[in-house]
Amino acid sequence: MATMAHPRRDDDRPRRPNIPTASNRLPSVRDYEQVDRDVIATLRPTLGWFALLGIAILCLFIGIGAWTYQIYEGLGAAGYHPPTMWGVYIVSFVFWVGIGHAGTLISAILYLFRAGFRTTIYRAAEAMTVFAVMTAGLFPILHLGRPWKFFWLIPYPNWRLIWPNPKSPLVWDVFAILTYLTVSATFFYVGLIPDIAVLRDQETNPVRKRIFSVLALGWRNSDREWRHFTRAYLFLAAFATPLVLSVHSVVSFDFAMALTPGWHATIFPPYFVAGAIFSGIGMVFTIIIPIRKFFRLEHMVTINDLDAAAKLCLFTSSVVGLAYLTEFQVAWMSGNAVEQEYFWNRVFGQWWWAAWIMLICNMVLPLSLFSQKLRRNTTWLFILSIFINIGMWFERFVIVVPSLSHEFEPWQWGTYRPTWVDYSILLGSFGWFFMWFLLFIKQMPVMAISEVKEIVPPKRRVQEDHSHDLDALVIDPGATMGDD
Amino acid sequence: MQGVLAAFAEIDSTVEAVQDLRKKNFSDITVFTPTPRHEFEEVLADPPSNVRRFTLIGGLLGVTFGYWIAIWISDYWPIVVGGKPVASWVPYTIIGFEIMVLFGSLSTVFGMFALSRIPRLTMTVGYDPRFSHGDYGIWVVAGPDRAGEAAEVLRRHGALEVRNER
After folding, report:
1. Residue B37 sits in the same domain as residue B66
2. Is the Cβ–Cβ distance between A116 and A141 less than 8 Å?
3. Chain B residues closer than 8 Å to A164 by CB
4. How many angstroms separate the Cα of B89 from the Cα of each of A426, B71, B92?
5. In this structure, what are the phi and psi dihedrals at residue B30, rounded to the nearest 5 degrees?
6. Three-class SS of residue A45?
7. Which of B11, B100, B116 to mutate to test the interface with A (most CBs of A within 10 A)?
8. Which residue of chain A comes nearest to B35, CA vs CA?
9. CATH code: domain of residue A267
10. In Å, what is the CA distance from A406 to each residue of A230, A358, B90?
């Protein structure tokens, strides 16, 4: 594949390759055995891991307690007050679905594009997708007055002879989210099978070995298995790619199908999809940077990989920023007084603080990624990712709450104030997500062992002469070993 | 099943051993590799995977079922709005698409499992844990009359270990 690396000149200092995605190399990884050793070493539980897991479970219990209270008291406990009958739960639903999207982007879309930098980060991103969609799926149920009847949205023969309305965006949501969860989880598990086989073959504890044996399904790394596996993986990636675009488009229809000011816009599907991928990349940084540091995987998740992901972050931030500005432009040019009033109110009125958090976190701060120095600074990337997570949650808040609290007539106007129940359940959702993620990273390889092996040169009896290829490249050891 | 199993450290030795076995008319050869490599695809020259047929059939069934369930529900409980058709294909495309992806993906995985013959309850003969670690393996099906010949070819190409299994 093409590379933008500069040819070496005698009078020139070695430069860092500017676009490191194409020729992904791991110079510090010598052989396949080292890949197994380094990745399996991450599975040993540590005190810090137990502490984090404890915190996550505590947060989850706080959320469960708040939900129990809400079921007993009714939805009024959640701060709903006419006209704002959608609040933190719907905001968080859209937020968590969005988080999931970057995982599919990295695992499926970048796979189809043969983007090398995804290799070392996609497993963690894919796990993030599955757990984020599991978290998102809880919120519409939490939002129901009688959550135990959520299955009424699924079309199945029943004694009531009642079927859901297939023209309703809420029913589309059920199909989209359940399909997304199923396909993401399937894609995730299929990718894990060869790696579980590695764990099965390396494990010495008989109980764990037995569990891995069952999960590996008798995988043997034969040419027949690989032939069908690679083809199936390609088709799953090809299905997941339009699926990920459709899911957030469908989520955006929940809003765009209504006539509410600020929602009834054709820009919503691409705007939501770009926002989802942007927020997901933010969460990927939040997760992968600590993993890289605490699991000592700097030689695998190289600074070049993070640099490439940061460029993707910058690109999606630009798309999201353009969408924000286009919304204002459309409102201004629409000649619709209600729409204009609403957008004025969003930025300079009642909800100015939320809108400015959104604009600064999602539009302004990511511009720093134009600097290569900051793209390669993991501390800054981590801090920025926290701002992006906050900014993207507020983006959904800005979409949901200001529209509902400021509809067509002044008598419809109102306000919204989340209660402790909302905050506790939001906290519980983070506990739920991180509990699963933390359990995952100590039971399963956080990096795709078999795919990392693909980019490690295999042992040969007769060494091929690649010196002429390498002469054309300037590989700065600091750039690949993590010079942050 | 009876045959010879060999482990190799280097990929080029493995490829050459397979080529040599082919020349000597050993037809039932299985190669084990820790990661998929194009060298083996080339030397084994297997036909393209049939997983694609499962994908196509699953996808077509899914899209048909998706549209059908939405249209059937609408006709079963008709809600006429403004004299428009009860069954409206445009919004039902969402349901048709989602079910197509769902069925297509699941049938792809089913196809992969069926063609790869997994899940497998036992590892059967002809496997060694080192094949998932760093070494390559070759399993040649050969009766007692040809096992010695196969073992000799494998040793000549630098196999780390050669053993008969049944």
Report:
1. no
2. no
3. 73
4. 38, 8, 5
5. -120, 130
6. coil
7. B116
8. A450
9. 1.20.1630.10
10. 52, 19, 31
Does one domain contain both B151 and B105?
no
| Structural tokens at position A41 | 């070493």
When scoring A227, A447, A450, A460 by the number of chain B Cβ atoms within 10 A, the one with the most, hence best to mutate, is A227
Q: How many domains does chain A have?
A: 1
Same domain as B111, residue B55 = yes
Domain range spanning residue A113?
Answer: 32-481
Split into its structural domains, chain B has a count of 2
3-state secondary structure at position A216: helix
> Does the residue A379 lie in any domain?
yes
ipTM of the complex: 0.94
Nearest residue in B to A33, CA atom:
B134
> Tokens 């899911």 correspond to what residue?
A247
Which of these three, B76, B93, B116, is where a domain ends? B116
B93 touches A: beta carbon within 8 Å: no
- Digit-coded pLDDT (tens) for B74-98: 999 888 888 888 998 899 999 999 9
- Each residue's pLDDT tens digit, A418-477: 999 999 999 999 999 999 999 999 999 999 999 999 888 888 887 665 544 444 444 444
Q: Which residue of A has its CA nearest to B13?
A: A461
Contacts of B120 in chain A (CB under 8 A): 217-218, 220
**Nearest residue to A17 (alpha-carbon basis) of A2, A31, A34:** A2
Q: What is the CATH number of the domain that holds B33?
A: 3.30.70.3450
pTM of the model: 0.90
3-state secondary structure of B138: strand
Domain that holds residue B62: 51-116
Considering the domain boundaries, does residue A313 fall inside one? yes
Chain A hits for B79, CB-CB cut-off 8 Å, are: 165
Do B11 and B42 sit in the same domain of this protein? yes
CB-nearest partner of B109 from A186, A202, A253: A186
**Tokens describing residue A235:** 């088709």
B141 and B157, same domain (yes or no): yes
In terms of domains, do B68 and B81 share one? yes
Q: In chain B, what residues touch A230 (CB-CB under 8 Å)?
A: 36, 49
